[in-house]
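Appendix B. Raw example, untouched.
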Amino acid sequence: GWGEGGGEKSVGRDAGRSLVFGSSNVVLGDNAMRYGARNSQCTVIGALAGQAHTSGNNATVVGYHAARDTQDLTNAVVLGAYAGTGVANLRGKLFIGNVGNQTTPLLGGDFVSKRMGVKVDVGEERADLHIRSSKINSTATFNGSLVEGEGAQNYAIDIPNNGFGQFIVAVNGVVKAGLVYGASSGNLQVNVD
Protein backbone atom coordinates (compact mmCIF):
# COMPACT_ATOMS: atom_id res chain seq x y z
CA GLY A 1 0.00 0.00 0.00
CA TRP A 2 0.87 3.65 -0.20
CA GLY A 3 0.28 6.19 2.51
CA GLU A 4 0.93 9.89 2.63
CA GLY A 5 -0.01 12.66 5.00
CA GLY A 6 1.56 15.17 7.39
CA GLY A 7 4.87 14.85 5.56
CA GLU A 8 4.71 11.06 5.87
CA LYS A 9 5.66 8.72 3.06
CA SER A 10 5.06 4.98 3.40
CA VAL A 11 5.21 2.23 0.80
CA GLY A 12 4.55 -1.44 1.55
CA ARG A 13 1.87 -3.61 3.13
CA ASP A 14 1.20 -2.26 6.65
CA ALA A 15 4.22 0.07 6.48
CA GLY A 16 3.79 2.72 9.21
CA ARG A 17 0.31 1.31 9.84
CA SER A 18 -0.12 2.45 13.46
CA LEU A 19 1.29 5.95 13.06
CA VAL A 20 -1.15 8.37 14.71
CA PHE A 21 1.19 11.26 15.49
CA GLY A 22 4.43 12.36 13.88
CA SER A 23 5.90 14.09 10.89
CA SER A 24 8.55 13.77 8.21
CA ASN A 25 8.84 9.97 8.30
CA VAL A 26 9.82 7.86 5.31
CA VAL A 27 8.85 4.18 5.64
CA LEU A 28 9.49 1.64 2.87
CA GLY A 29 8.88 -2.11 3.07
CA ASP A 30 6.20 -4.55 4.16
CA ASN A 31 5.49 -4.11 7.89
CA ALA A 32 8.29 -1.55 8.27
CA MET A 33 7.74 0.54 11.45
CA ARG A 34 4.33 -1.12 11.66
CA TYR A 35 3.71 -0.38 15.36
CA GLY A 36 5.22 3.12 15.32
CA ALA A 37 2.45 5.23 16.83
CA ARG A 38 4.40 8.41 17.68
CA ASN A 39 7.49 8.89 15.51
CA SER A 40 9.02 11.86 13.72
CA GLN A 41 11.97 12.35 11.37
CA CYS A 42 12.49 8.58 10.97
CA THR A 43 13.79 6.84 7.85
CA VAL A 44 13.01 3.12 7.90
CA ILE A 45 13.74 0.99 4.82
CA GLY A 46 13.33 -2.78 4.54
CA ALA A 47 10.69 -5.44 5.12
CA LEU A 48 9.98 -5.67 8.88
CA ALA A 49 12.63 -3.00 9.58
CA GLY A 50 11.92 -1.15 12.82
CA GLN A 51 8.63 -3.01 13.13
CA ALA A 52 8.38 -2.68 16.94
CA HIS A 53 9.66 0.95 17.15
CA THR A 54 6.68 2.44 18.99
CA SER A 55 7.74 6.03 19.61
CA GLY A 56 10.75 8.25 19.13
CA ASN A 57 12.49 10.55 16.71
CA ASN A 58 15.45 10.66 14.35
CA ALA A 59 15.87 6.94 13.70
CA THR A 60 17.64 5.69 10.59
CA VAL A 61 17.08 1.97 9.98
CA VAL A 62 18.07 0.26 6.73
CA GLY A 63 18.00 -3.47 6.08
CA TYR A 64 15.75 -6.51 5.86
CA HIS A 65 14.46 -7.20 9.43
CA ALA A 66 16.87 -4.53 10.78
CA ALA A 67 15.95 -3.66 14.39
CA ARG A 68 12.75 -5.67 13.96
CA ASP A 69 12.18 -6.22 17.71
CA THR A 70 13.68 -2.93 18.92
CA GLN A 71 11.17 -0.71 20.72
CA ASP A 72 13.32 2.41 21.19
CA LEU A 73 15.27 3.64 18.17
CA THR A 74 15.41 7.33 19.12
CA ASN A 75 18.54 8.90 17.58
CA ALA A 76 19.74 5.47 16.42
CA VAL A 77 21.46 4.40 13.21
CA VAL A 78 20.99 0.70 12.34
CA LEU A 79 22.35 -0.71 9.08
CA GLY A 80 22.29 -4.25 7.66
CA ALA A 81 19.98 -7.21 7.24
CA TYR A 82 18.92 -8.44 10.70
CA ALA A 83 21.13 -5.82 12.37
CA GLY A 84 19.97 -5.21 15.94
CA THR A 85 17.19 -7.80 15.77
CA GLY A 86 16.70 -9.08 19.31
CA VAL A 87 17.98 -5.85 20.94
CA ALA A 88 15.15 -4.11 22.84
CA ASN A 89 16.74 -0.65 23.16
CA LEU A 90 19.09 1.05 20.70
CA ARG A 91 18.43 4.65 21.81
CA GLY A 92 21.36 6.80 20.72
CA LYS A 93 23.29 3.81 19.36
CA LEU A 94 25.11 2.90 16.16
CA PHE A 95 24.67 -0.71 15.03
CA ILE A 96 26.18 -2.01 11.78
CA GLY A 97 26.00 -5.71 11.03
CA ASN A 98 24.62 -8.20 8.57
CA VAL A 99 24.07 -11.56 10.29
CA GLY A 100 20.76 -13.26 11.19
CA ASN A 101 19.33 -12.35 14.63
CA GLN A 102 22.37 -10.31 15.44
CA THR A 103 22.77 -8.75 18.89
CA THR A 104 26.51 -7.98 18.65
CA PRO A 105 27.43 -5.66 15.78
CA LEU A 106 30.55 -5.75 13.68
CA LEU A 107 30.71 -2.01 14.36
CA GLY A 108 28.70 -0.35 17.11
CA GLY A 109 28.77 2.71 19.25
CA ASP A 110 27.09 5.20 21.53
CA PHE A 111 26.43 8.72 20.23
CA VAL A 112 26.15 10.14 23.77
CA SER A 113 29.37 8.72 25.28
CA LYS A 114 31.17 9.03 21.91
CA ARG A 115 32.50 5.48 22.26
CA MET A 116 32.79 2.90 19.50
CA GLY A 117 33.36 -0.84 19.49
CA VAL A 118 34.34 -3.49 16.98
CA LYS A 119 32.66 -6.85 17.75
CA VAL A 120 31.58 -5.50 21.18
CA ASP A 121 27.97 -5.59 22.43
CA VAL A 122 26.30 -2.19 22.07
CA GLY A 123 26.50 -0.29 25.35
CA GLU A 124 29.48 -2.33 26.59
CA GLU A 125 32.20 -0.23 24.95
CA ARG A 126 34.83 0.26 27.68
CA ALA A 127 37.05 2.78 25.89
CA ASP A 128 36.82 5.47 23.24
CA LEU A 129 37.63 2.66 20.80
CA HIS A 130 37.19 -0.93 21.99
CA ILE A 131 38.27 -3.73 19.64
CA ARG A 132 37.54 -7.34 20.48
CA SER A 133 39.13 -10.21 18.60
CA SER A 134 37.97 -12.69 21.25
CA LYS A 135 36.12 -12.11 24.52
CA ILE A 136 37.92 -12.23 27.85
CA ASN A 137 36.22 -11.90 31.22
CA SER A 138 37.27 -8.35 31.99
CA THR A 139 35.15 -5.42 33.15
CA ALA A 140 37.91 -2.82 33.51
CA THR A 141 37.33 0.55 31.83
CA PHE A 142 40.07 2.52 30.05
CA ASN A 143 40.48 5.93 28.39
CA GLY A 144 41.64 5.73 24.78
CA SER A 145 41.62 2.39 22.95
CA LEU A 146 41.15 -1.10 24.33
CA VAL A 147 42.07 -4.20 22.33
CA GLU A 148 41.04 -7.59 23.69
CA GLY A 149 42.36 -10.82 22.25
CA GLU A 150 44.67 -13.77 22.48
CA GLY A 151 48.18 -14.29 21.16
CA ALA A 152 50.78 -11.74 20.14
CA GLN A 153 49.50 -8.21 19.63
CA ASN A 154 51.35 -5.18 18.22
CA TYR A 155 50.24 -1.62 18.92
CA ALA A 156 51.38 1.92 18.19
CA ILE A 157 50.36 5.03 20.12
CA ASP A 158 50.89 8.35 18.36
CA ILE A 159 50.44 11.34 20.68
CA PRO A 160 50.55 15.05 19.79
CA ASN A 161 53.30 17.41 20.95
CA ASN A 162 53.03 18.17 24.67
CA GLY A 163 50.81 15.10 25.03
CA PHE A 164 50.69 12.19 27.40
CA GLY A 165 50.36 8.56 26.43
CA GLN A 166 50.24 5.24 28.16
CA PHE A 167 50.10 1.63 27.08
CA ILE A 168 48.65 -0.80 29.61
CA VAL A 169 48.80 -4.59 29.59
CA ALA A 170 46.02 -6.15 31.67
CA VAL A 171 45.04 -9.76 32.32
CA ASN A 172 41.29 -10.11 33.00
CA GLY A 173 41.13 -6.44 33.92
CA VAL A 174 44.13 -6.48 36.31
CA VAL A 175 46.97 -4.22 35.16
CA LYS A 176 50.19 -6.23 34.84
CA ALA A 177 52.53 -3.85 32.98
CA GLY A 178 52.56 -0.49 31.33
CA LEU A 179 54.51 2.13 29.50
CA VAL A 180 53.95 5.80 30.32
CA TYR A 181 55.31 8.74 28.35
CA GLY A 182 54.96 12.30 29.62
CA ALA A 183 55.88 15.11 27.24
CA SER A 184 56.70 17.50 30.08
CA SER A 185 59.54 15.30 31.33
CA GLY A 186 60.34 13.56 28.03
CA ASN A 187 60.79 10.31 29.97
CA LEU A 188 59.51 6.85 29.20
CA GLN A 189 58.53 4.94 32.32
CA VAL A 190 58.08 1.14 32.35
CA ASN A 191 55.95 -0.44 35.07
CA VAL A 192 55.75 -4.19 35.64
CA ASP A 193 53.76 -5.83 38.43
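End of appendix B.
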